[in-house]
Design a protein that fits this description.
Two copies of one chain form a homodimer.
Chain A lengths: L9 E3 L2 E3 L1 E5 L10 H10 L4 E5 L2 H4 E3 L2 E2 L11 H11 L2 E5 L15 H6 L24 H20 L8 E5 L6 H6 L6 H15 L2 H8 L19 H31 L5 E6 L10 H6 L2 H6 L3 E7 L9 H14 L6 E6 L11 H14 L3 E5 L4 E2 L10 E2 L13 H22 L6 E5 L30 H20 L3 E5 L5 H4 L4 E5 L6 H12 L3 E5 L14 H5 L4 E5 L3 E4 L2 E5 L4 E5 L5 E6 L4 E8 L2 E6 L8 H12 L7 E3 L5 E6 L3 E8 L5 E3 L1 E3 L12 E3 L3 E8 L1
Parallel strand pairs in A: 3-4, 3-12, 4-7, 7-8, 8-9, 9-10, 10-11, 11-12, 15-16, 15-17, 17-18, 18-25
Antiparallel strand pairs in A: 1-2, 5-6, 13-14, 19-22, 20-21, 20-23, 23-24, 24-25, 26-30, 27-28, 28-32, 29-31
């Protein structure tokens, strides 16, 4: 077993530390019950509370602030901060400007939205205001008011931070930046945005000739270049949208930088954080896209830790692979930070949803098994919106750990069990590691598609067939990667890591036995080179459903093809192939890569017996190229995944008598944890046998797990 | 309690009879195991088997048929038919031409698809063939070959029908007609279709003046009228698409009529059936649309019974309302036929899905509670596709009752329990009825949208805002009707019926205490008159979120408004209203109806205190008009539904100590069944008290239900 990237963890006073937080919205709870809520949080063995500080709530009118409860006892933020101190509970604060949180106007003051001119609002391509609560982040007017708010709230945060003996240990900057483009399916074409986009293009290309050569255009000067609108019909449209995506990453980074500089200017030194949405309809396949929108921020701000909004809505075997994938992907894009959940589902926002305590408890333990090092139960406390301040209804969140009056609900006991477990295991749990032989490559530029193809976009702007291509990036993300390979490996009980090709070198990749690369027709030259180097240096790369021959602007770029001396043609055939002697493997596209037999071993064939998959030794390594697309819908797909893993003798870490039980092994020098998770609606009994190279585990009696439950076994090594 | 429409049932030899069938695909099972499969089916207490008869399987080459197993033992249909006879199992046959069933080319012979000219294939608006297995149903060439197939297979079916002492009791005509437009998101613009469309328009309008006055156009003659393409931008586009939807209903009816005449010409007298898809992603909110595509067939063929494809994929409290709604909607559109499930989920098609036996068993009992009178377990038997004949993989269906080799799986015992229950209860169960005080109006024309807005359509063609309207029919269907009202009533434990406004008069509606009408801006004059008559004659109508003032072609039509003397204006306001003294009710649109106080009682107000809901006595009845849209996302919505029900003193049939348990009461003169269903992932204990006007039930001890389970209590009256 190759040991993977060392998992990072939080520390406190230099010691490994698990951040256990619960979300308590003081503004949604009667002030005389704050203490009860915080006490119950502490009694549950959490060490931290978390809350938004809604701008609207405290700046009642322009320049009229209340942080001391003069106008309303629930505005007494100072009292809440002191209470945390008194009870020795750490605190995470989230003062916006945006908070969302189903607060009216997403936390922006109503008076502000009336006051702001049109220039401050996000605008559609026709210049219409998109929504009366969506502003342009970098508009002068919005920033000006935000700074006025910050000028009042940041001094309070500063004086109550840990170094000044206050409770505050972490602060979130704004909330889910850019999410509105995803959720509303709109793009902000505000003139300010367009002007910044023009600057970005000028800086990036410098001369019109360099842009023309990339875009295949005949512009006379850079001022002619306008942001793209509508559907992608040509290669040039595609280039423009790709740069528009890059621009927004740059733009969000600029916004965060401005806010952060302001925050730091107040001597606030606590850990900063930001949150990433991803789950939708119980599946997290959009996460690779959403996490990609923060690529510039992650690159430029190593003092900001990104946390997941980990809200599956329901737990089931059907979405268990999404939970694992989320934790692995976050680890990949932030290899130097602990994996943490800024919002860790506790209860439900929608009244019609049922979030059963036992299901959530199982979900929590699964996340511990995956390597999570901190989380914030969202919501620990139910709240009741102040009159007129809620976006949906009066009550905020149902089936939480405690209700708005401070009564314990079912979930409280589950949370207590999880917290106890973490506290009891102390450093053992935190410093334990998972091992993986399999690495899945994450190539983020494939998922820079929030403006062109996503689940919530009103109009799909990208149809790859219009460009003469056939591997749709959304299809690759959802069906081939997420619900294909990742679901397949999880179902088969093989652990994997994810590597962000943007932040790793081939040496790191060589610590795995296999690297799985899911590719479209395009990939930049550097990354193609990285993959070629990896193979030549001894790696085994599995790449499908195509070999990239274009760069990200759809210009010719055949590094992999040339470096690995691969030749192929494209040909249509039936949906069935045989691969590694498995017959009738269903493939998604009729288009397939066809190879000649020269210098390689054929491993897959179309029904017409054309070679559509090869294995080839190159340098010290080898490559397996499958020229067809497949996800996971039939048993043949699972057989194929496993057959490919066997090419490098990759084994499961345990033999288990019922493979429907998912397991995860975590080890340190001294101990080993085995997490067994029953994601099924059925009682399961099973035996297991440890088959790692390390010391054998004791023989185990039969284990029985109730529906949707878990068991952790700890062994000394 | 008003007794609802008498539920219909199947009969055999004049006696009430429950049709219990299991799907067994002889062509996917080794011939020497057929007997084992059928025996196990019979042992499970089923009375019927069901199978497709794939055209491709038996017409091996053009005009070369094998029904006797000469080329392959699994082609010996005759043997299979005799075996059913021998074992005294009735049989449902489905000889296509289309079968789908994940059979290659959906059951059409490969040689046929090569032979057919372009004219026989479904074509896009640009004349391209949409897919190589999608034909134009009424193309001469396709019908010609279909008749050649029918000429061989129908004589066999005829000679093996019940009246000729064979096993065949039912025959399905084709399969899920029209589903390809829904699934593929394409429209068939084959020249033949267009020519039939032109005929349809000519027959419907007769003169160009009459069309011009409806469409608001200036065409010179009817030949100018072309089928609509692309997006709806104008009222005229909308009219054209509405007629295009009507045309396809007519077209499907024509196709079925042709096939049926052929079938009857062979002296086949058995019950005919056809199946309706509806579930997608675990929710059935598209069913009202899909069932609407068969409106002409249902109207014209009372000898064809429509059955549901009842495949929820997973069972949960989240989609329990969909199951109930499906059964109630089918009953509404076919009031003179028993509710039956042509495909009743047993196992799963996708390998990654888990269909737990206990969940399915609960789903089966819930359907019995709703009034289902027959079903076909799909799939009772797992199958293995003949080489090259499967669309996806080798294996067809997983977690079935028995595997391909005839071994019992978990589901077998569940099915046996269900079948035993039905057989034991005999006529008592079949003749029992549910009662409802609440009727939900189904107005099918709202859902004639499969060409313009549906979940799978590639491009949404209808944006109502382009027409100056704001109540989107898809939003009405999904969020207001299905996941709003229907989910709300199910959660609250109030039973309801659905009435198809197309097939009922106001007297039938008067048997309920309340009629709930969810309306868009448009509704035809006759239906508006029906609703007005209902109110004047003593009915209570709840209508929202708007009063129709247009007909189905968006021409002025204010029957309800005039007959009920209602006056209102439209005004934008915040998303919150107070209604029936419930504050902060979330509404979906900012647009609301505003009423004056004259002659009515205000019941709802915007935040600006405009009246947005009224109650008004009219004639012998009354109307409650809510000028705002709401579904079910917060607790206030449930409170509002219940408050409105209380206006007519509508009560639940039981008081139950845990309202999370769903219950259904079925009664006949002699007996009463109470079905308790635990749709939750938790063990539940509860008491109940019967509060119907009828004889009181005994006092009950506490009942405990395991996660996802049920209990049926039977009482003598």
């Amino acid at each position: 077993m190759s040991n993977t990237e060392t998992e990072k963890y939080f520390t406190k006073n230099g010691e490994p530390y698990f951040l256990i937080s619960g979300e308590v919205h003081y503004f949604r709870i009667q002030a005389n019950k704050w203490k009860k809520h915080l006490q119950l949080l502490k009694e549950s063995d959490a060490n931290t509370a978390s809350t938004y500080i809604p701008w609207d709530w405290h700046e009642i009118e322009a320049n009229k602030f209340d942080f001391e409860g003069n106008s309303n006892p629930e505005r007494n933020l100072i009292k809440f901060l002191k209470l945390c101190n008194e009870l020795e509970i750490d605190l995470i604060v989230k003062p916006g400007p945006y908070i969302l949180a189903e607060y009216k106007n997403q936390g922006l003051p109503s008076w502000l939205l009336k006051k702001l001119g049109k220039k401050a609002f996000a605008q559609g391509e026709n210049g219409n205001i998109i929504s009366d609560d969506l502003v342009t982040y970098l508009s002068d007017e919005f920033l000006e008011y935000t700074f006025k708010w910050y000028d009042k709230v940041l001094p309070i945060i500063s004086s109550f931070q840990k170094k000044n003996n206050g409770p505050i240990v972490m602060m979130q900057i704004c909330n889910e930046i850019g999410v509105f483009q995803w959720l509303s399916g709109n793009i902000d074409y505000n003139p300010k945005v367009i002007s910044l986009y023009n600057d970005f293009i000028k800086k990036k290309y410098n001369t019109i000739d360099s842009l023309n050569s990339v875009y295949s255009t005949n512009y006379q000067n850079l001022d002619e270049v306008k942001p793209p609108v509508g559907r992608i019909k040509t290669k040039t449209d595609y280039c423009a949208y790709f740069d528009f995506h890059l621009f927004f990453r740059h733009y969000y980074n600029q916004y965060i930088t401005i806010l952060k500089n302001k925050i730091r200017s107040y001597g606030i030194e606590v850990q900063l954080t930001h949150n990433i949405p991803g789950w939708i309809y119980g599946n997290a396949s959009e996460l690779p896209m959403l996490i990609g929108t923060y690529s510039e921020i992650i690159k430029n701000h190593n003092d900001i830790i990104f946390g997941l909004d980990h809200i599956p809505e329901f737990q089931s075997f059907r979405n268990a692979h999404s939970g694992l994938a989320c934790n692995k992907i976050l680890q990949a894009v932030q290899p130097n930070s602990p994996v943490w959940a800024a919002e860790f589902q506790a209860g439900t926002r929608e009244h019609h949803v049922r979030a059963y305590a036992s299901d959530l408890e199982t979900f929590y333990f699964a996340s511990l098994a995956h390597g999570m090092k901190g989380f914030n139960y969202y919501m620990f406390s139910q709240g009741v919106n102040p009159q007129g301040k809620g976006f949906y209804g009066k009550t905020f969140y149902y089936q939480t750990a405690i209700d708005a009056n401070g009564n314990k609900l079912d979930l409280y006991n589950s949370i207590k069990k999880v917290n106890h477990f973490i506290r009891n295991e102390k450093v053992d749990l935190i410093t334990s590691q998972t091992n993986a032989d399999i690495c899945i490559a994450l190539y983020k530029p494939y998922f820079y598609t929030e403006l062109t193809t996503s689940q919530l976009l009103k109009e799909k702007r990208l149809n790859v067939s219009d460009l003469g291509l056939f591997v749709d990036p959304r299809f690759l993300r959802e069906e081939i990667l997420f619900n294909g390979l990742m679901r397949g490996l999880q179902t088969l009980n093989y652990n994997y890591d994810v590597a962000d090709l943007d932040n790793c070198d081939f040496k790191k990749l060589l610590t795995y036995k296999q690297l799985w690369v899911l590719s479209t027709e395009f990939m930049d030259a550097n990354t193609q080179q990285l993959l070629a180097d990896y193979v030549k240096s001894g790696g085994t790369m599995i790449i499908y459903p195509i070999i990239p021959t274009l760069d990200l602007y759809l210009n010719n770029c055949e590094v992999i093809k040339n470096e690995l001396s691969i030749d192929f043609s494209l040909k249509k055939s039936s949906h069935k192939v045989s691969a590694f002697s498995i017959d009738e493997v269903f493939t998604n596209f009729s288009q397939k890569l066809i190879f000649s037999e020269i210098n390689c071993e054929p491993v897959a064939f179309t029904e017409e017996r054309d070679i559509c998959g090869i294995k080839k030794k190159i340098g010290k390594g080898q490559v397996i190229i499958l020229g067809f697309a497949f996800g996971y819908s039939t048993d043949e797909h699972l057989q194929l995944y496993e057959k490919i893993l066997k090419q490098n003798k990759i084994k499961k870490q345990l033999e288990i008598s019922d493979n429907e039980i998912q397991f995860f092994v975590r080890e340190s020098d001294k101990i080993r944890y085995i997490f067994f998770i029953n994601y099924h609606n059925q009682t399961k009994s099973f035996n297991y046998k440890f088959i790692s190279a390390r010391k054998k585990s004791r023989t185990q009696k039969k284990i029985t797990l109730n529906p949707f439950s878990y068991k952790v076994i700890k062994e000394k090594l």
